[in-house]
Amino acid sequence: MKHLLQGCLAASAIALSTASAWAADVTLTISSWAPPTHGVNAIFWPKVIEELEAATDGRVTAEVKYGLAPPPAQFDLVLDGVADMTWIFHGYNPGRFVATKMIELPGYEGNAEAASVAYWRAHEKFLAAADEHRGVKLAALMTHGPGLLHSNTKVESLGDISGMKLRLGGGVSGDVGAALGATGIRVPAPKVYETLASNAADGVMMPMEGKAGFKLNEVAKHTYSVPGGFYRGSFAVILNEDTYEGMSDEDRAAVDTLLGEKLSRIAGAMWDEIDGIGMDALNNTADNSYAEASAEDAAKWQELTGPIIAGVLAEVSDKGIDAAAAQAFIAGEMAGN
Hints:
D-Maltodextrin-Binding Protein, domain 2
């Protein structure tokens, strides 16, 4: 028994020594929202952690925590150092972000990965001049796939949308709702299910991923789309500046290889993946349906987008940015990606 105990203690010491050798020097706290099963939490953050560990040979890792703050407060949470990293939806902070609306415009053609890469490149070339993420380290920019209309009442034409109460996330989606004659209701994405289940709204504008990620297949059974989508949502991944600057030169250089376009591409690919999961949820739910705009409605939609786009270009131009050039650049990058 004595020899057995000594052996166990020796084995424990070796295990602890090995664990210590592999322990990370820096563990970032990631604040996140949306359900844990949502793609950002189930796919994106695990990938980010994997990439951080790989780039730094395990010296930097991270852990995800929920409930630290509601979605609109995530920027300030990281700015104040309560968390080291998070993802934000720009539309939750109206007035604080304007240049970010450039990626939200209707009319772009392409998937979320192409859009997210184009968004990052447009930021570097045009949008960074607005300095709208000052105080934090901008790690990535991303957008979800084309925004669609999900409702429990079947929508078969643009005219059916007039008079509906729609949950709209903010930003350009609010302008779209107004142009279509809908009344906008502002609630964060995690509240969408209960908002629809209680009939406080008739529908919601979200990408296809919401069918699974927010269980819209249960409370918004019918989906209606227009070419290119009604809008796209603008998101950022941000880091606390003190945390970033506090890393060793070696680790900061390693982390830099992940940030920017690479992380934006990873994020966009994740949105495309979960759009596919959402479509599967729609197809596998017997009472769900999907309808595309008729040629007549598609043409009408193009007319309606004119004032929306002009309004955003004017807003962004007031920030000293060549908004028209930025729009053309994004469209061209998406076409070539």
